[in-house]
Design goal:
The structure is a homodimer of 77-residue chains. A three-stranded antiparallel β-sheet of chain A has the order 2-1-3. Chain A is α+β, with helices and mostly antiparallel strands and 77 residues long. The first copy, chain A, is 31% helix and 39% strand. Chain A has one domain: Mth169, Chain: A (2-Layer Sandwich). Chains A and B meet through α1, β2 and α2 of A and α1, β2 and α2 of B. Chains A, B: It is an enzyme of class 6 (ligase). Chains A, B: This is Phosphoribosylformylglycinamidine synthase subunit PurS.
Chain lengths: 77, 77
């Protein structure tokens, strides 16, 4: 069983990585970009019997900094 | 218009970040994890008229290292 966790910064939190990507894209001539937000995706191969609650606990304890980040869990069979 | 680009390492490419996360999860007592792969997600706010081809060019020129990474583009209206 697989789980995919997508972690993104909460709105209003400054995203220097996104700003740097935005600036670089403009430098390469891509003018149609208004904003860029960068985040993480973590793919977990889980043993049988692992549940979404387990993944949620992993997110709260390690994978995401819940003060400044949102996380979304997608269970993939 | 928004685009979401998910960038993951190709199979067979060593993922030290994933290994470190896996090791940390086990240290926290999460035993049901068999493998962990870490990647990036980049959300782009695009001006009207920007197309998926533009985003593909951004991926090939900057966002993804196509030698070791795969990228997937999702256009979100």
């Amino acid at each position: 069983m697989k789980a995919r966790v997508t972690i993104t910064l909460k709105n209003g939190v400054l995203d220097p990585q996104g700003k740097a990507i935005h600036h670089a894209l403009e430098g390469l001539g891509f003018s149609g970009v208004e904003d860029v937000r960068a985040g993480k995706v973590i793919e977990l191969d889980l043993a049988e019997g692992a549940s979404e609650d387990d993944v949620d606990a992993m997110c709260r304890k390690l994978l995401a900094n819940t003060v400044i980040e949102n996380y979304a869990i997608e269970m993939v069979d």
